[in-house]
Design brief:
Strand order of the largest sheet: 3-4-5-8-7-6
CATH class of the largest domain: Alpha Beta
CATH superfamily of the largest domain: Chorismate lyase-like
CATH architecture of the largest domain: 3-Layer(aba) Sandwich
Radius of gyration: 20 Å
Largest sheet: 6 strands, antiparallel
Number of strands: 10
Number of domains: 2
Number of helices: 8
Distance between the termini: 64 Å
Strand content: 35-45%
């Protein structure tokens, strides 16, 4: 028999997933706690614990006598939760392919350790190549703490690393900070991107955090500047990077 603690976590994971996939959109009122209790075969008290967990993550807000409604992952709150590199680059009619180049179980990367809040500790990483219509456009290296190695180990190209981490951590990645600069491609990066060594690339460093502000994922990405365009979209006090695939230059 499952313990109540495990049960409410499982319910929170399912409701969180429905928010992520758009079943419950921003502003939507969730089913009543009694309806959810009936659906999940549990008690109202257990559902209430799950809702409270989602409230702490900033995804849900409850009002007495009204119900619980979705507040997180709105257009102004998504940051990179629903727009990973794969999703951003795949927002076009061209075919996006992802290939895993290597998985590293324990490496020394001080920069990643500092970004993840675990300075002087080893991390694990996955290196991927993103291609559009068989043309390589992005080399992406994603670092996480070694305790999350099983996520890196089990990742498949058709999977979402964000979604896997959300499930593994019983939380949701809902915040990100990113900086993008121009940098010359090293020989190994140039070889993967099929460009001349030293060619200017867009270089991104991004730290993704959970709803409590804890760093979870550190990404470095090298993007072909002749194929990837970067723009900034502002909405009030919120802003978001957007990536688009440029037409191949003749």
């Amino acid at each position: 028999m499952k313990t109540p603690g495990l049960r409410y976590n499982e319910i929170a994971i399912e409701i969180r997933a429905r928010i992520q996939n758009g079943t419950y959109t921003f502003g939507t009122t969730l089913p009543s706690q009694s309806a959810l209790a009936e659906e999940f075969g549990t008690t109202v008290m257990t559902v209430r614990q799950a809702i409270r967990l989602l409230e702490n993550e900033g995804l849900v807000e409850s009002k007495h006598g009204v119900g619980s409604f979705v507040t997180g992952l709105s257009e102004n709150h998504r940051t990179f939760q629903l727009r990973s590199f794969k999703q951003a680059l795949g927002n076009n009619s061209q075919r996006l392919e992802t290939r895993v180049i290597e998985r590293l179980e324990h490496i020394d990367c001080p920069e990643a350790g500092i970004a993840l809040g675990i300075a002087n500790e080893q991390v694990c990483a996955i290196k991927r190549l993103r291609s559009i219509d068989s043309t390589p456009v992005v080399v992406q290296i994603s670092y996480v703490a070694r305790k999350h190695w099983e996520v890196v180990r089990d990742y498949q190209p058709d999977s979402s690393l964000y979604a896997m981490l959300n499930t593994h951590l019983h939380t949701v990645i809902s915040q990100a900070s990113e900086k993008v600069i121009a940098t010359p491609a090293s020989a190994d990066i140039a070889g993967l991107l099929d460009i001349v060594s030293g060619t200017a690339c867009l270089f991104s460093e991004r730290v993704s955090k959970d709803a409590a502000g804890n760093p979870v994922l550190f990404d470095q990405a090298y993007m072909r500047s002749d194929r990837v365009e970067l723009s900034m979209v502002r909405n009030g006090n919120n802003s978001e990077f957007q990536y688009e695939i440029a037409e191949r230059k003749r």
